[in-house]
Task: structure prediction
Amino acid sequence: MKTLLSFWYGIFKNNPIFRLVLGLCPTLAVTTSLENAIGMGLAATFVLVCSNALVSALRKVIPPAVHIPCYIVIIATFVTAIDLLMQAFLPALSESLGIFIPLIVVNCIILGRAEAFASKNGVVDSIADGFGSGLGFGLALCLIASVREIAGAGTLTFWGDIAIKGLNPSPVTLAILPAGGFITLGLLLALINRIGEWNAVRRGAPPPLPVNLDCRHCTICPNGKRSET
Result:
């Protein structure tokens, strides 16, 4: 049951983009096309699953004083592996995603799951958590990219030459520009929050409170609170 919940929470309840609002740099940068979003989502999922598994396996071996540097080294190893694989087998996608593949090393989603979950749970649960968080991240990227590409280019590019054209006879270039990324993300966040309120009212429950995103409520810290220094 815990394994299933770990997977489920990563997709919906603790979705990295729409609930925790993490990893926004690659989110805004690569979602100009669905193909880019799929590539980034798969790369991030690979790193999440592998790093979570290794961090969990070594959680009793890594000294507490150096656990963050060790996690970063582990994450960097898998990021380097996926970066080299993409350069070798998917050069066009690798060039399109550019610096944002190496920057997965410092993505707070990856380090956050290693510190908050994998370092405290078994390997199987940690793999489920990594896969759920990666899938949630990828699905959110695909949703944002689909809206931006259809609105801004009138197409939907799945992979290479596999694309649907003519979806929007009057494309608005703003949608695939940086400003369009902020606008699209804001509108989707508002819509998802509104849907959450409707579902709560339908069940007779109070509307969900906004997610507190300041340091005191960081989900990486125990019990959602950071000790005062």
